[in-house]
Amino acid sequence: MAYNHIERAQFLAEALPYIQKYSGKTIVVKYGGNAMISEQLRDAVMSDIILLQLVGIHVVLVHGGGPEINAMLKKIGKESKFVDGLRYTDQETIDIVQEVLCGKVNKNLVASLNRRGGRAIGLSGLDAGLFEAKVKNPKYGLVGEIINVNPKIVTDCIDNGYIPVISTVAQGCDAECSYNINADTAASKLAIALKAEKLILLTDIAGLMMDPKDDSTLLPIVHMSDVPLLKKKGIISGGMIPKVECCVEAIRWGVKRSHILDGRVPHSILIELLSDQGLGTMML
Questions:
Q1: Out of 16, 68, 125, 195, which could bridge 131 as a Cys pair, Cβ 3.0 to 4.6 Å?
Q2: Alpha-carbon span 67 to 134, nearest angstrom
Q3: Are 183 and 168 in contact (CB under 8 A)?
Q4: pTM of the predicted protein model
Q5: What is the pLDDT of residues 21-50, one digit of tens each?
């Protein structure tokens, strides 16, 4: 037991310079995948966010909710349809997306943070015109491309001591409608608008790997200039392409660092931010 106490003290001592470095800075975390489904991982993420807030680091949580949307569509007898990896979104589907993301999922996350002593407030991209979008491509239906971010409502929440929890439905500016937005993209756009220190994408894999089946081939650091060659070699492929592109765009527009983290590891956010070890792939 004494050794455990020593370990904890050493971790706190190791964390001190990182707390000093990031205190007062904004971190945008895209939350999804197994980290949302597993109760243990969800508890770890909530604890991480509250701890970071308590030491003066501003965390903005951007979330998806694919499994919950799938479950609701199944419940009403509607088949989920995907085109190029994006959910095809007709009017009935966007109604479900808005109901599930802005309602059930968002408010459950807010309640989860509040129960643990945090001060969270739920927002959607519709609130105060946070996300304004136009149709991405008619073949995807009501899937939007963000063309403007109005972050004041988020900064107001931060300035008043709240943890903003944001669902990714956008206000249409080319039509009177709502648009479904990819959560990675929304997190990247918001990180840019907030001039965030870091963008963190929680995923269900260790990070970017030379061999996707072998965690030992993890690339801990990737420079923006490396990305075209990694794409050409097929190392960045499939679902990793949009995640890397979101990270690259964030850095290109002023975010200091972007990270693709393994959300299956408990307390991965704390390990990355407040320890010498780090996790996943850092892009710079």
A1: 125
A2: 25
A3: yes
A4: 0.92
A5: 999 999 999 998 766 778 888 999 999 999
